[in-house]
Please model this.
Amino acid sequence: MPIYLDCNATTPLEPEVREVLRAFLEEEFGNEGSRTHEFGARAKQAVQKARDQVAAVVGVGRDEVLFTSGATEANNLAILGLADHGISSKRMHVVATAIEHKAVLEPIQELERRGFEVTIVPAQRDGTVCPQQVVTTVRPDTLLVSVMAANNETGARQPIAEIATALQGYDAYFHTDAAQAFGKDLDGLRNPRLDLISISAHKLYGPKGVGALITRRRGFAKPPLKPLMHGGGQERGLRPGTLPVALIAGFGKAAELGVKSVESRRARCRAIKAKAIEAFAPLNPRIHGPADNTQDHVLNVAFPGLDSEALMVALKADVAVSNGSACTSSSYTPSHVLKAMGYTDDEANEAVRFSWCHLTPDVDWPGLAHRIRNLM
Model:
């Protein structure tokens, strides 16, 4: 089997998380909503423990954690769930960036179809956004500002802390898609000015199919969200349906381990990245993302003149990599992120994303570089 180098698409399960999943799938299979017997009580205890574990990562209380099926649903709830409040309060302006995931851009496009005004802040050449440029777009009628924490294609960390500080005194809600940063970049997500945070377990060595929306209080008030679905009172009436206890318990364990192991994981990922960059250097690659502020486990790179599709086919027996977001890679369209950074279609089509983790085995980077050189 090839070595898996597509961890920004999804991560392998942490062994301790796998054990939690097994226990709640095979033994503790009760419904969290069953209040008349011990099976339900133990399931409820597991869910509450997971809320505490997830909450601790970003410094909130358990009642500010709303479980969802993943960050995509959380993004939709954060953005579309504010629509009624925006209409009633006559705050129908929304700000986002050009490098957001489609799970943010498409719900915002839906708001635009409903009559909201949208401002899209462009990206800089290094794949980051300028915090001052974001904040200068905010108006008295701005309902929401949405800026991702770290880009899924380039690994570029965004200036969340600076934007949060600059938004002090504004009424606009501040949302971040933190699918790639949760449990990896801790400090920025603990900023009390961040109102809404979308996260997924499967980006943090947890199971697919579960995530959360953090709904941080301002004083005593939570963001005025309305549900997108109806049919039950679960999750404070904002997300109906039987809770997947096993997935939630696994998510909680993954979150706990993320905080506990963050430094050792970063060190392992930095070492892998250094070897990759050293091996590729003689090929004169074009690296996308800021040199000093890209996540340690991501390398988005282009070898000029070499199409990414041809490269991936040539390397598929050795490594599993991608040329963009897993949500859009099947369409083979040039990356909207790289185009927002100012690259042409041809340049964007040269980009390949390598992404790894602390569980990744040793990679023969010089051997990969040799294979690539033969294709150039």
